[in-house]
Amino acid sequence: MPDFKFENSFCGTVAGVDEAGRGPWVGPVVAGAVIFLTQDVDSYLLKYLNDSKKLSAKRREELFEIIKAEAQKHHLRYGIGQASAEEIDELNILQASFLAMSRAVENLNTRPDMALIDGNRLPKNFLCPCQCLIKGDSLSYSVSAASIVAKVYRDALMKEMALKYPGYGFEKNAGYGTKDHINGLKKYGITPEHRKSFKPIKDMVA
């Protein structure tokens, strides 16, 4: 379970950073960044913070609402950034993920002294010093909160996209290559939001 151990090992403000949506065939990649300004926050939040993939959609949405409420109380700050499907095709998914992370940190409206970035790869020329934290969303409250912010925000974007492009099941599959998505591609073709550098979209374009 996550805690504040990694945050406490640095001086100054520490941001946790994570992304959602590297694997889907459609839509943006979204990053979240969270700084806890105090560790005296809602106990329910700390009790259930974890890797967003280990939580139900309902629990993630509950926690995101608490994160927003704690931000209103100035107990934490959160930022959201994204990189579009077009940017993913132009840069590749890894670099687009780093771009989304950079935008999320920019949207914190404060420059952290350190960023804990989930995973095993560090972006170059980041906005502040940064350190990788493998499985960080299971180890650090800040990274875990960032993963929830990114996941809930992206899921909401995909539900909006499902209204614009019905027939692909985006509201359920979040853009991953499910049976509904494949059937939608066969019936309606690709949308402007599809990642043309990803298979099988690349093959369909060709």
CATH superfamily: Ribonuclease H-like superfamily/Ribonuclease H
Sheet with most strands: strand arrangement: 3-2-1-4-5
Radius of gyration, taken over Cα atoms and rounded to an integer in Å: 17 Å
Low-confidence stretches: none
What is the top-level CATH class? Alpha Beta
Regarding quaternary structure, what we see is single chain
H/E topology pattern: HEEHHEHHEEHHHH
In percent, how helical is the residue content?
40-55%
Number of helices: 9
Q: How much strand?
A: 15-25%
Cα distance spanning the termini = 46 Å
Principal-axis shape equals globular
Secondary structure category: alpha/beta
In total, the number of domains comes to: 1
Main pleated-sheet profile: 5 strands, mixed
CATH architecture: 2-Layer Sandwich
Examine the coordinates and then state which fold CATH places here, giving the name of the CATH topology: Nucleotidyltransferase, domain 5
Write down how many β-strands occur, each being a DSSP E stretch of 2 or more residues.
5
- Overall pLDDT metric: 96
